[in-house]
Amino acid sequence: MEFDVYMQEIHWADSIGRKDIANQLFENYLVERQHITNHLK
Predict the structure, then answer these.
(1) Per-residue pLDDT reduced to its tens digit, 13-30
(2) With the CA atoms of 24, 27, 23 and 25 taken in that order, what torsion angle do they form, in degrees rounded to the nearest 10?
(3) For residue 35, with 0-12 CB atoms within 10 Å meaning exposed, 13-18 middle and 19 or more buried, which class applies?
(4) Among 13, 19, 39, 41, which is most buried by a count of CB atoms within 10 Å?
């Protein structure tokens, strides 16, 4: 699932010390998850 890929990318960015990228990816993840959730209602 696409959300699993987001989590892998977040963990990878965090593991190489790029917390800024990890945080941005997490924000993107939250926005996309909310968008999909709202669309399914």
Answers:
(1) 999 999 999 999 999 999
(2) -50
(3) exposed
(4) 13
